[in-house]
Amino acid sequence: MYDFSIITTAIDQFLRSLMPSALATFLECVLIAVCVLVAYVLLAIVMIFMERKVCAAFQCRLGPMRVGFWGLLQVFADVFKMIIKEIIDFKRTDNLLYNLAPFLVVLSSVLTFSCLPFANGIEVLDFNVGLFFIMATSSFGVLGIMLAGWSSNNKFSMIGAMRSGAQMVSYELSIGLSMLTLVALSGTLQLSEIVARQADMWFIFKGHLPALTAFIIYLIAGNAETNRGPFDLPEAESELTAGYHTEYSGMGFGFFYVAEFMNLFIVSGIAATIFLGGWMPLHVPGLDAFNATMDYIPGPVWFFGKTFFVIWLLMWIKWTFPRLRIDQVITLEWKYLMPIGLVNLLIMTLCVVMGWTF
Amino acid sequence: MNITFIQPEKFREQMEYLRRERGMDFLRELVGMDWGEEGIGAVYMLENSETKENVQVATRSTNREAPAIPTVSDIWKIAEMYEREAFDFFGIIFTGHPDLRRLFLRNDWVGYPLRKDYDESEELNPVRMFSENVENDCTHTLAPDGTLQRNPDTLFDNNEYIINIGPQHPATHGVLRFRLSLEGEVIKKTDVHCGYIHRGVEKISERLTYPQILALTDRLDYLSAHQNRHALCMCIENAMDVEVTERTQYIRTIMDELQRIDSHLLFISCAAMDLGALTTFIYGFRDREKILDIFEEVTGGRLIQNYNVIGGVQADITATFAEKVKAFCKYIPKKIKEYNDVFTNNIITRKRMVGVGVLGRDEAISFGCTGGTGRASGWACDVRKRHPYALYDKVDFKEVIYQNGDSFSRYLVRIDEIMESVRIIEQLIDNIPEGDYKVKTKPVIRIPEGSYHATVEGSRGEFGVFIESRGEKSPYRIKFRPMGLPLVACMGTLLNGNKIADLMTIGATLDYVIPDIDR
Amino acid sequence: MEMKKPVIKSIPYEEFKDNETLEALVNELNKERTNVVVGALDDLINWGRSNSLWSLTFATSCCGIEFMSVGAARYDFARFGFEVTRNSPRQADLIMVAGTITHKMAPVLKRLYDQMADPKYVIAVGGCAISGGPFKGSYHVLNGVDKIIPVDVYIPGCPPRPEAILYGMMQLQRKVKVEKFFGGVNRKQSREELPEGPMIITNVPQETMNNKEKEQ
Known about the structure:
The complex is a heterotrimer of chains A (358), B (519) and C (216). Chain B is α+β, with helices and mostly antiparallel strands and 519 residues long. Chain B contains 17 helices and 17 strands.
């Protein structure tokens, strides 16, 4: 297994040898922030491109083809356009909240994004309540959406925001429960530790039935959490024109758009980390030669491979399923997913206590 | 066509008699009419949905300033909309009508455009670039002294949460406007506004010759272009006693059915899109292109074909036509299975559609909701069976009828009708007889004096043409029965109490085309 | 830095009609010299804008169905960068006026256009939007949308074929490529320069204003 902490430690030591410790820490913070933001934007662009191509493939189309080879530069063109697009000011809106809302959404998703363990040693923040922190940061994105809907002074936005509020707060529960199920299995909230404990076997195999159930619940709830089809009611194109971001133009809309895709990445990334072993290669107990071969594939490849697999699953769902109705969304959560999640947590605890895991 | 004239005083009594005693429960059409000196009034076409018996009655008032006729909106529900239309075009005041507002034109419009003495000058009705005066929250009733009276705040209260769906909204399939009063997500009241694509086809037609009018019918409901034109051609041919050849009948019938499949495929696509399943939308369009290929080869047009002409069709079918149609008939059942797998049998689709927007049989008849909507409610309203035309009495097909009347039945009717249309085509395609595709008609077409009427089964209901002729080159009055207006009229009944998301389901499955409503 | 002739990838320049208009525009823009940095930035912006024209889903009649066909599997305008159709005018770059515009719809269309964020473009699709088409003589039809909003590209047809719509969209891309974001060449057309049109009332009557005030 490659350990990227060698590189990061080397950089750290190099900086500290040049300047005072406080300055080095500060410089490192700036460096990391830049890296995180660049990675964030690049990944968003990759995701948007992927969405277009995947959706086109499902729909017997080609998707973007003309801008750059195979349409590779399409999203860059969109970005350039969006940056210089006019941002409209309104007379009868709460300007502060209106302008603040997209930043809140992006802030929430950047914070969550920076917590993901990309590879052995590439983690920005690794502390003993990592999973808890992720839940906390990811859940205040809904605040931005509610503010956007409220401050736009538009009835469609308002309905979209209300839907979004009801939906995201509800599904947070299921996400929490399925994460808790895995925490019961792993016995830790620290992300690096969670990954490390999957060295012999990924949790989805280790926890067999309850883990699989938790994984499915997590995928459904995660899909709802990111407001993507079949749970895209907050922006339901054919109902509310564009939902909570109807009134946003230019980069304001751009932020929402990017945050939506990055939330999808984050949800998939977490799924990959806690269920599918994160950057941990596929290890099968007993097959040492196989395990050793797998170790030659670097951690980031594993992490991104698994993440994009989950993303692809979610895209498949989005482009196949019709949209649910708001009462059905809420019924699904409170009458089905949450009770199942609770029972599942109980079963998992039982399995762990009785040692019925692999 | 015989029209019985009734004095306005006795009119109400007679209409009640027709409805009660003779079971005339389907008000097919209400044609507002300006007879000039003889007065302004309306022609009512009634049908008994059981015995298929027809009656045409008319009434008129000689008072041109304020022609007053008693309303029948409490007898037939659809009359409420039809009477608003007649008020809009002719200024006929229907006494006792609950809500006599203009239906298509802006409420600051000056004059009544379909009257013969209407002043079309731009000074009276310039393009007004400001929003309509907010007079919408009131209904109009007739005061005892004969003047129209506004009743403010009867539609929507000031405290209600009202949203506008449309005129520019993806779910309305065009430019229809709904004003909804909401309580949370639940719709409390609905008010439909039409007329955003009112093009005045009927008025223009009064200036055009008959062959010229043909071009406009295609553009009414562009998804039943063939059927619309078929109706008008049939009406004119009947009036002139022109017998079309059998080959023409075969071609027309096949084309009508192809058009029906085309329209129903688009229906499936759009229903899927409205429910958020974009992939099925694209699938539908993919298969629709195959029909458009056939159309293009034969007629030269994709969407609007201008194919039927008086006395036949524009051009003969091509040599490869039969072969292509047969290939398509083989192709489409497989694709229907694909839609069923991807969309129809999806649990979410079922949850969204089953039991949503139930329209009962009696309501469907009272609202005059023909086509797939009526048949989903258990009303055998297919014109192809009721009053067979072209070759429909010679081919064997089943009239698809469901009893539930909900959105899902309306959806299934269309799917099954595609298969029935395929059956009809398969019976005909191999037996197209030799002969002329067009009979010679006079260079200038004049219709003998009188009233004529013809109906066909359009893609989404009964499409009728009514011509009042004075023996000229152009009609004195021409009226097209909109397939969509009854469907829109019943929206209020279906929506109230449902959620906003159900508006998309119900709207999509009712399957209206706006230019056909507004004409 | 000189502005180049607008070229669309894989399609010969000569195959486009009406190159003269665009060349005249290029010549006018090239009168003032721009420096290389600004020119390069302009090129980049024009590249971005022309390759990412998101259209508003706006259709009133028949042409709208053909517009949907262009978005569907066979014609697929996503290939050229018209990927996304936005339902909110704020997020759209382009309004395809597909279908007849009537007197009642005219203020709505104008408002939609006003709601769009700059840069915004207008394509008039089909005979009705260009001149009123078959309904020219009607009492309720606006004879051409260019009477109320500025039109960039006209696509004739009734309805135009999907290929024609694609061609029109490419013409718009070419037109977008001969723009300057920097430098003082942007100017607004004054009211006097507008072409003579039909009688249009834009001032809201006092009565309506009063009602509006009452509402708020």
